[in-house]
Amino acid sequence: QELCHDIGFAALPRLQEFEPEGLAALASALAKLELHDDVLLKGIARVAMARHSALGPQEVSSLVWAFAKLSEGDGTLFRVLLQDAELEVFGPQNLSTLLWSFAAASLRDQGLAERAAAAACAKLPHFSPQGLSNVALALAKLDAGDRGLFGPLSSEAARKLGHFKPQEASNLVWAFATLGIRDARLFEAVAVEAVTELGGYAPQNLSNLAWAFARLAFEDCSLFATVAEEARAKIESFAPQGLANLAWSFATLGIKDPQLFAVLAGQARSKLGSFTSQNLSNLAWAFGSLRINAPGLFASIARMMASMLAAPVSREPAALSSIASDAGGVVWALNYAGHSDAALEASAPQALPEIGRLLDRAASPLELLPLAPAWDAGGQSSRGATLCQPRMVLDLPDRLVVQKPEDWEVDDTADTSGGRPLSSFLRAALPRRRWPITDQPEHHFGLLHRLDVPSSGLILMAKTHEAYYDLQFQLQSGRLVRGYVVLLHGWWPAGRCDISARVHWDDWGGRSRSAVRRQGKPSRTRFSQLAHAGCSAQGQALGLCRVEIATGRRHQIRVHAAHVGHPTACDGKYASVPTVQSDRSWCPRNFLHRYRLAFHDGAGRARVVREPLSAELVGVLAQLLPRDTDAAMALQTWQRAMLQ
């Protein structure tokens, strides 16, 4: 260290005398030795930028690598050195180094990254395995470049896969998974190679490999059995994030390995003080979703999360939203696993709304004059609403309940599936200047839950962040109740029936549908038979049921009903084509209606909101022939909107 300091001290006043190769070599040496000499580095940067036109590909790539490695500078050096550089003449190693450096320095310059990616694409056959891995990793971290590049990159990587080192292979699939690029052939090839090489995988490589396969719902039994075996042997060397990611990966694929989760629980508890809130949430979700009996671990996670909520490390809005989301994940996991924790249940209902209040203050909505109501006292829109538009059912100071007609979409994220967006309608009534949450996809525009596009019923919405996190806690802890009425094919068994089958949302290849699969998310639906009847038009056996859900997966009720052989009436996605064609002669739309919401308002008072069936669904029930007297009474009750 002393010798290097002396060399640097001697070099500083003579930097102008250095040739480009010497200047780059000096910077690279500092980086390799991890010497953070700010004065010398600033001098090197100043001279390099002044002489950037004289630098060749090797000097440019070495300089940016050195500054990225040492986390020095704000990206100005990168931009100056590369502004006139002809990246087409850069070699594969130089391009790989450039892209790695962009990612390491978190350089958010799409133009530069895309230029380097385009130059790399033309030379992929000449890249080494490490170079291919670095390119994929950099583009994933920067979310840059044409996704079309990953096709040739995949082909070239598959051709050289036998020469990839463990870290290079895990980084490769991690990059594809991060960008959501589901390349089945590449992942199959990686699995075949990795199974025999996992002994050389470090703990982080193992967790990254498992995470990538789980993220894209690729399950390879041999691979994960071997990963579990290797992970058990190396469990003491896993970092907290590696432990959480490994548990999450196995749980996401529905792989319940008792031996692995036993050692995971023990090792996690010993390192829990070093877990981030996201690590805690992922770990709790993994154990909770698989319903693994680990009371000691759950209690430790709950205590740690309660302490984090009591003293957030940052008051920045993004950090507050993150810890609130992570805490909600822990609450959900404990509730789903049937584990209650007094400390978290006492702290979360106060801490989460307090985070919401901080976010409300940070959003600083403008103080506006009172606006004309979007709905009159009778619940009809003052802006020309018709029967096919949403309708206000309950309007409270900080939250509201809206009736969603069919064909409207609860677009609680930036992604939509073609229905009329409910968020746009609500923003017309709740201007974003006064209610900022209505314009924030990261808070689901204030919407608390989904409802399928062809279905109708009640939607709960928060007007403020405080209300949003209060209601999120109620939802995740099972205190918010959603009740539905559905008409099913066949006669549902008498009494109650709980279905616990994991539901996987598949949007690969434009299919956009759910299915019961082991790789799905844990899902639970309770059906209660109300009436058995027949359809006079078609002679079909039908059952009217009341439904409650403990989870809210996409199309959950419809998928669970179809899974057990009782698809909902007129379900164009989960019933057979002949069945749907027959249904449409007597049932104009999918018969699924959310008729009841039970929750607590901002003052802690219990609220129960009900919404009767629409006239067209009542008309459907009027066509049915009840099986017996009890069925006749039930059908009449629902037709008269005397909801129970």
From TrEMBL:
It comes from the Eukaryota. Residues 160-308 form the RNA-editing substrate-binding complex 6 protein domain. One of its GO terms (molecular function) is RNA binding. One of its GO terms (cellular component) is mitochondrial matrix. Coiled coil: none annotated. PANTHER family: FAST LEU-RICH DOMAIN-CONTAINING, LD45607P. This is Pseudouridine synthase RsuA/RluA-like domain-containing protein. It comes from Alexandrium monilatum.
